[in-house]
Design a protein that fits this description.
The complex is a heterodimer of chains A (234) and B (296). Helices cover 34% and strands 16% of the residues of chain A. Chain A is α/β, with parallel strands linked by helices and 234 residues long. Chain A has two domains: 152 residues, Rossmann fold, CATH 3.40.50.300; 70 residues, no CATH class. In chain A, strand 9 and strand 10 form a beta hairpin. Chain B is globular. Chain B has one domain: Orthogonal Bundle (ABC transporter involved in vitamin B12 uptake, BtuC). Chain B is mainly alpha-helical. The chains are: A alpha/beta (234), B mainly alpha (296). Chains A and B meet through strand 6 and helix 3 of A and helix 8, helix 9 and helix 11 of B.
Chain lengths: 234, 296
């Protein structure tokens, strides 16, 4: 992957099973967002491929849901929580089909799973940070997404909201979904994630949190400069 | 009550009233997209960029709706796509490129105008002459309104996704680039249909103010589209009547009335007005604060 011929991400070879909560760790500019965009099919890798269950990514639209960073969302948009969750169904409904009773149940179930029933008619800026994250998760649930890609979901949340969001993510993973979240606070990685991916221009390490989240890997990821043209010896 | 019905005794006023209702509604409906997609600057640039296209169209093919339309469309596309090309191929940002291109286009238009054989009429097209609407103009307006509103209603779901977040929309299979071009084309079409009513320059008011007014009053996206349409239609029709009674230019009256409606919403809106902020500095989440205080 590269921008204007500057390589951003390379030598990524990963195989992740469903049902896990995965932390994507790396310094600024390590290619975390690029990684997401490649997985979700927004950017095409120059070489290599991404596949879900054997299908090429981008072919199977909607299987992966991308949740943008909170600061990239226009919170003044005239949209209620329910309206946001309903947009998750648009992909199945296409342009013409009417909102069926089943889709309404789908939306209600997603709202209930994220404990947002009471807030369903609020405009999206009248929510706390944690509630906003859950509203976007509810949309991805309504989309029946299988892979959830979250860009810094814990950023800007207080400790209590972080814990509740972490619990919610684990619950979604227990239902057989795959959660991949970029994350920058190294202190609470073991609390929220059971697997980690270390990224710094290339894949540094990946595996179980217990065995892979080590001081050695952290140092290797955060203290070496990103790929700058010559091959680095590991 | 005679003064109220008197304007409608004239056939030219009946046509003008119909044209105002249609143009006001179409532009008001479209204004929701311009406000949400933050295209106001783009719309401004396009409104100026139409000028050289109109001039060339008139010089080459004479003053017909088709020549004006094709000239305006080509000019708008050249400026819109040119700005995109410059911003992509150099370090200059798109707004900068757009501002350069549209001022250059506008200047080129003024220079070209001095060579045009029908300067006076073209001047009318710039600032509008709603009382001179012909039946052919009215049919053009019908056609453009029909195409614009049908397209927007049919594509409302993908458009909505794109407006809220283009990159997420792309992951849901929305053809964001294509939709953008559709929107710009509709924008140019609406501007052309506004030529007669208020002129290209004042068309911008009709394309931004209605939805901006509703944006201050409502949290519903549907209200923004349909409400924008109603505000636009009402403002245009009422502005036309006021201009008739007071013997003032119609285009200016319409835009002034839209501006007045926006100011009222800006000051008095129950939720987002400045008066409310001024007198009621309380927290927006009163309910949750109360719950929190109860716990203490």
């Amino acid at each position: 992957m590269s921008y204007n011929r500057v390589p951003a991400l390379h030598h990524i070879n990963l195989d992740i099973a469903c049902g896990h909560c995965v932390a994507l760790l790396g310094p600024n500019g390590a290619g975390k967002t690029t990684f997401f965009k490649a997985v979700v099919g927004l950017l095409k890798p120059e070489s290599g491929s991404v596949s879900f269950h054997g299908h090429e990514a981008g072919r199977k639209i909607g299987a992966a849901a991308y949740l943008p960073q909170r600061e990239n969302v226009d919170w003044d948009f005239p949209l209620t929580v329910r309206g946001l969750v309903e947009t998750g169904c648009y992909l199945r409904l296409g342009i013409w089909r009417k909102f069926s009773a089943e889709e309404h149940r789908n939306v209600d179930a997603a709202l209930a799973a994220m404990h947002l029933e009471d807030l369903a008619d609020r405009q999206i800026s009248a929510l706390s940070g944690g509630q906003q994250q859950r509203a976007f998760l509810a949309r991805s649930l309504a989309q029946n997404a299988h892979v959830f890609l979250l860009d810094e979901p814990f950023a800007g949340l207080d400790k209590k909201s972080q814990e509740s969001l972490g619990e919610t993510l684990k619950q979604i993973a227990r239902n057989g979904n795959l959660i991949i979240a970029s994350h920058h606070d190294l202190r609470n990685v073991p609390d929220f994630f059971d697997r980690v991916i270390f990224l710094n221009g290339e894949l540094v390490a990946q595996g179980d949190t217990a065995s892979t989240f080590t001081g050695e890997n952290i140092a290797k990821t955060f203290s070496t400069p990103a790929f700058s043209g010559t091959r680095r010896e590991n | 009550m005679n003064w109220l019905t008197e304007p409608f005794h004239h056939e030219f006023m009946q046509r003008a009233f119909l044209a105002c209702a249609l143009i006001g509604f179409t532009n008001g409906f479209l204004s929701a997209f311009i406000v949400l997609r933050r295209l106001a600057l783009m719309a401004d640039a396009l409104s100026h960029a139409l000028l050289p296209g109109l001039a060339v169209g008139v010089m080459l093919f004479g003053l017909t709706p088709l020549s004006l339309f094709s000239g305006a469309l080509v000019a708008a596309l050249l400026v819109g796509l040119g700005a995109e090309l410059i911003s992509r191929s150099s370090r200059v940002k798109e707004e900068t490129a757009l501002a350069i291109l549209y001022t250059v286009a506008f200047s080129a238009g003024i220079v070209l105008l001095s060579f045009a054989p029908v300067r006076v009429e073209l001047h009318e097209y710039l600032f509008g002459n709603i009382l001179g609407v012909s039946n052919a103009d009215l049919w053009t307006t019908y056609g453009i309104s029909f195409v614009t509103i049908t397209t927007l209603v049919v594509l409302q779901r993908p458009l909505f996704l794109m407006l809220f977040d283009p990159s997420v929309a792309a992951t849901q299979g929305v053809k964001v680039g294509l939709l953008n071009y559709v929107l710009i084309t509709l924008l140019v079409l609406s501007m052309i249909s506004s030529l007669q009513a208020v002129g290209v320059i004042l068309a911008l008011g009709l394309l931004v103010a209605p939805a901006a007014t509703v944006y201050l009053l409502s949290d519903s996206c549907a209200a923004l589209f349909w409400g924008g349409g109603l505000v636009g239609a009402f403002g245009s029709c009422a502005g036309l009547l006021i201009s008739y009674w007071l013997n003032l230019p119609a285009g200016a009256c319409i835009v002034l009335l839209l501006g007045l409606m926006f100011s009222v919403a800006y000051i008095f809106s129950p939720r987002y007005g400045i008066l409310r902020h001024f007198f009621n500095r309380g927290h927006l989440h009163r309910e949750s604060l109360e719950r929190w205080e109860k716990k203490l």
